[in-house]
Amino acid sequence: MGMKSEDFNSKRYDHNAKTLYNENDVKAFVHNWFAGFDHQRDVEFFTKHLYPENVDMYFPDFGPIKNFSDFKKWYQGVIDNIQWNFHETSNLKVSGDEAKGFSVSLDINWKAKKYKGETLDKKVHQDWKVKVDKDRNFIIEKHCAKEIKNS
């Protein structure tokens, strides 16, 4: 005695749960963002997640980044100097919803090797504010990174 297709169609999964982004989607975006840096993706991979003239980003070694031009300048510095890098995420916490936006908090252990041979191993805390645009892209509205100093 098998199930009939109308048995499946008589139930409807919650529309919002099916269609709206949730915390897991944001966590996947965060991991994908850092994988983009690890693979030194083209700058457009990143800029599609920023508003062109309203970027609000701060890095320990560069900032503020206020627009695409600033971001491209910062990222070109990465491309010109970093031979290899890897971002290990930890303590990733996401709260919020698609309607109001998401708050993201995480720690990064950034390991890198410069073309000149220097190796880097830095711990950085980051706080983000993320929205969803009309095309269903995640947009980083605010990004603040601070190096965690060993005490």
Brief summary:
This protein has helices at residues 5-9, 15-19, 23-38, 43-47, 68-81; strands at residues 57-59, 62-65, 82-97, 101-114, 119-132, 138-147.
Instruction: State the low-pLDDT regions, or none.
Output: none
**Estimated radius of gyration:** 19 Å
Sheet with most strands: strand arrangement: 2-1-6-5-4-3
The biggest beta sheet is recorded as: 6 strands, mixed
What class, by secondary structure content? Answer: alpha+beta
The gross shape turns out to be: globular
The number of helical elements comes to 5
Mean pLDDT, all residues: 92
Order of helices and strands: HHHHEEHEEEE
**Which percent bin holds the helix content?**
25-40%
User: What distance lies between the first and last C-alpha atoms, to the nearest angstrom?
Assistant: 67 Å
Under CATH, the topology can be stated as Nuclear Transport Factor 2, Chain: A
Content of β-strand: 35-45%
Tally of DSSP β-strands: 6
What is the count of structural domains?
Answer: 1
CATH class group: Alpha Beta
Instruction: Using the 3D structure, state the CATH architecture.
Output: Roll
Q: How does this structure look, described?
A:
The protein has 151 residues and is an alpha+beta fold. It has one domain (20-147): Nuclear Transport Factor 2, Chain: A, CATH 3.10.450.50. It has helices spanning 5-9, 15-19, 23-38, 43-47, 68-81, and strands at residues 57-59, 62-65, 82-97, 101-114, 119-132, 138-147. Strands 2-1-6-5-4-3 form a 6-stranded mixed β-sheet, covered by helices on one side. It is globular and about 65 Å long.
